[in-house]
Amino acid sequence: MRFLHTADWHLGRTLHGADLSPAFEAWTDHVIDLVATQDIDALLISGDVYDRGIPPLEMVDLLAETLERALDHTSVIVTSGNHDSAKRLGFGSRLMRDGLYFYTDSLASRVPVPIRDRSGDVGALVYPIPYLDPDSERGRLADDPAEPLARSHAAVLGKVLDSIRADLAARGLGARGLGAHTDKPYTMIMSHAFVSGAEETESERDISVGGAAQVSASLFNLPGVDYVALGHIHGPQQVASAGPVMRYSGSPIPFSFSEQNHTKTSVIVDTQAADPIELVPAPVYRKLATIEGTLDELLSSQFDEYRGHFLRINVTDPERPANLFAKLMQKFPYVLEHQHLTESTAVSVAELEAIRTEPLAVLREFFEMSGGRDLNEAELDVIRDAWEKVGQGA
């Protein structure tokens, strides 16, 4: 059997204000071409189908059209991510046509989607897990709602995986790992989570709650599971060296300059192949690049190859040139970010990076410098809660 693992479509997202609609249209056409020509038994979308809870209407139409086209060739399994509104994405899912499965409720994840092979037998079982917000799930998933689970991703995801472990055991599939050459169903888990060891980019929205954003790859090491189709991290990569194969498909389009060197891919999982993983390059709408030099250097022929790129430009003249942006735009029509980079601004950029990567540490330092004393634990908890509420409302 063959599966197409994708994630993090983020339909409706822009890049520094640039419209990416043509990129999304090229991507969805590419997906349809793959499911139509590569004997794909199921298309997997592991969360963040949309970029926000209320997506643009044209992106709703694009997804509807894409799913309709895909269902002419294969089954489709979709989970919600931290960017999606689970309720809106899953609305009416039980009324939709055969072969289309929306999983937005954590309690449904213990029941797999059976995928039948060409002979009509169940050749694979797919357990789709939506993004799990600890605040909303710790009570729902607890054995006793009066005693909620710990406020962490590991606690709520671990509880769902325990229910999958129990289901595998009940089916007689949990005694050992299942390979491609057994007569047992190939077993897959879909999950939208931040697994420890994965390499982040600048474009994933923070999912930390209570300081516990990451989950251990060992949580997924369930007997009987062959492949874990991950979403959330935008760089395509494999995580963990032990247990089932675990991969992030990555986003199909770069959404930040930290992704400018990525080769965006989707993953074809072939359950009968000796090497089950095939990476398929995604179409490139417009390349991203960062270039640097004096204005004269940038306007010279040595940078001509970047005219059609989305660009981040650092200008290094000792004094800021007059009409800087207008001159850059005249040669480079797709400049998305530019700065006059001097020694003083370089320090500022480093400080901004520190704020991005360690915002709570920066806030703590500010309050301690302003108040002339260290913060106590109660005060630190107030800051953490306030920061998390800001992040959830972003």
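Above is the first protein from milestone M3; the second protein from the same milestone is given next.
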Amino acid sequence: MARLKTHDDALRLKLINRAAATVFDRGTGALSLRKLAADVKTSTTAVYSLFGNKAGLLDSLYEEAVRLFIARLDTVDSSDDPSADVVRLGIAYREYALANPHLYGIVFADRGDYEPTPERRSEAGSTIQPLVDAVVRGQAAGQFKEGTAEVIALSCWGAAHGLVSLELSGNAPPGLDIGAAYEETLYAVVSGWRARGPESAAQTP
């Protein structure tokens, strides 16, 4: 009879999510493998078996956060309106952050004493590529100004990141509903990068 596999992916994800919540709320210094194991009702042996040590756990946590973020962005299919795709990617950015605030914080907020490896940083950096690709397609279609696509993409990304960070931290100015203004703000940023001409004017939201 085959032995049951107790150190499986389900347990791994449960440990990652609990560790992410701890790091998000109190920083990496508060992360104890023994306490983590107790919280998830498993053994420290299981934690060490799955991750090796605390550094391995943090690395896996970061990797999982990036993987899920990429998967969410990949649900945004390219359309024949690249400027609208830029906004849709921004909406996907916020949806991921609100659904996974602890994992989002691992990638985009203060991680304490955890320093991602160059490989992990490269993986995280690649998440802007769908936005860059949409801008490049928009430039080819005459929707966006000529210039460096990465700069345009970064400004759109920065607007999304700033609003989401304010929303998650609870630091939005009183009386302002970020959720209600979010999409309108993204369209305003996109509009600022539009090529000026009869064709682009007709496409302005």
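Note on the second protein: Residues 1-5, 198-205 have pLDDT under 50 and may be disordered.
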